[in-house]
Amino acid sequence: xxxxxxxxxxxxxxxxxxxxxxxxxxxxxxxxxxxxxxxxxxxxxxxxxxxxxxxxxxxxxxxxxxxxxxxxxxxxxxxxxxxxxxxxxxxxxxxxxxxxxxxxxxxxxxxxxxxxxxxxxxxxxxxxxxxxxxxxxxxxxxxxxxxxxxxxxxxxxxxxxxxxxxxxxxxxxxxxxxxxxxxxxxxxxxxxxxxxxxxxxxxxxxxxxxxxxxxxxxxxxxxxxxxxxxxxxxxxxxxxxxxxxxxxxxxxxxxxxxxxxxxxxxxxxxxxxxxxxxxxxxxxxxxxxxxxxxxxxxxxxxxxxxxxxxxxxxxxxxxxxxxxxxxxxxxxxxxxxxxxxxxxxxxxxxxxxxxxxxx
Length: 359
Fold this sequence. Notes:
Elements: H1 7-38, E1 50-55, H2 61-70, H3 77-87, E2 96-101, H4 106-113, E3 122-125, H5 132-141, H6 147-154, H7 157-162, E4 178-181, H8 187-201, H9 210-226, H10 233-243, H11 257-263, H12 284-287, H13 312-319, E5 328-331, E6 337-340, H14 343-355
Antiparallel strand pairs: 1-2, 3-4, 5-6
């Protein structure tokens, strides 16, 4: 009788395959149990701290998960995102303002976001690029506070210190967004809420503090005012960085029209003499006026502070400008810009712009 020497190894292989299959099925089953049963019922290891959270209209599951992770109310964002998508719970999440705690379970968080918004107050939308004066008028139009009340709060030195705002006013540090305010809200409460939202929305950017933050937000505000197309923001930020580099641009003057216009805003505490005749279009009087501290045609470096409320794309561009050789730019078609490396190229681009009907 001849023994089959291959039967024993084949048997071992079959046993191993069966064992592997069983382990695989067990792992899949355990993962499914963990994601869909255990994890949603597990409280986050917080201390019950309350967190005001806004769900923006049209937000994607990925962005929502990142925002919840940024405010530290969920752990394991990957697991939370997987459960949120595969369970179908995301479809019932609503836009609005909600109150969460850092000790909630994932299921409690989602049930809260599927419920009724805590704020049913006055809805106010502040677009990117709005100045304090535009915000003040918006608040006044909504009958929340007067222009003077808002202005006083945004220039209140004690309030600015309390809110850790390093600039001469709250300009640039009140995040452009949609808010719901109680009709009895005060101007100081509005400023506080918008400043806190700035912190929340910029967590992922890891912005610096103190003077470096002021400089970054100031640059971002100029980029916001100049970049009509979001994908040009890093390039424009790169141009300004080059102008602030003595070896590349000895004068160090940004030569940004929006800064001069901002210095003539009646909302400012004081205005230069040339601003008294400013009617919305810059002329030689405004561009040559040394008394306007925001005149970047006459003063080198950044202006004293931000000139508007920058959005995330402008803040991101200011933090990480594109490495470009350009030193100049002029507006061209559809809000885009023509960038130039030399003054001769720039003058040629300006001439072409004017021949097309530009000012």
